[in-house]
Every structure is written in C-alpha cells, then in structure tokens.
Predict the structure.
Amino acid sequence: MNYSENANRGAKLLDLAHPGWAKQIDQITLIEQRSKDVATQLFGDYQRAMRLLDQSTAPQKVSNGFAPNTFEQRDAIALAEAWRREIQSRS
C-alpha cells in the first residue's frame, strides 16, 4: 500500500473542496491521536466529512487516504505521516 500516493489524492481533493485546509490541521494531534485525522479535524466528524467529500465506499476512503488499508497500527501511522508530508508541502 502506498500511503503517500493515497494521501496525495486526498490532499488534491481537499485542495478543491476546502482550499486552505492544510493550515487548519494540527500536525501533532494528527500523529499522536489517530482518531483526530485530517477529515475529522476539518469537518468535526469523520462520517460527516466522508458524506461532504462524497467518499461513500471503503475503497474510495482508502484510495484517497481517508482510511488505512488495515486496522494495524503501523498502517495508521504510515498514513498519518503521509498526510503530514502533504500538509508540509502546502505550508
């Protein structure tokens, strides 16, 4: 699984749907509290974010970096790190 590519797709989606999103993300929280992912931080609720971003299926969520491919901690960490790089590239 290439989480960098997935997060990049999701970041591009957010660039269109929510310009300036990267400045609203607390990167420390993103890494330390995986329940506070990018979508949750932006929209306040993960399910609401997925509805607003039209991410209704699990494959869409994984492909666009809004969910890891597995529930393994290492995958969640890898995805959070990929998002951190996307945020930093927009700062």
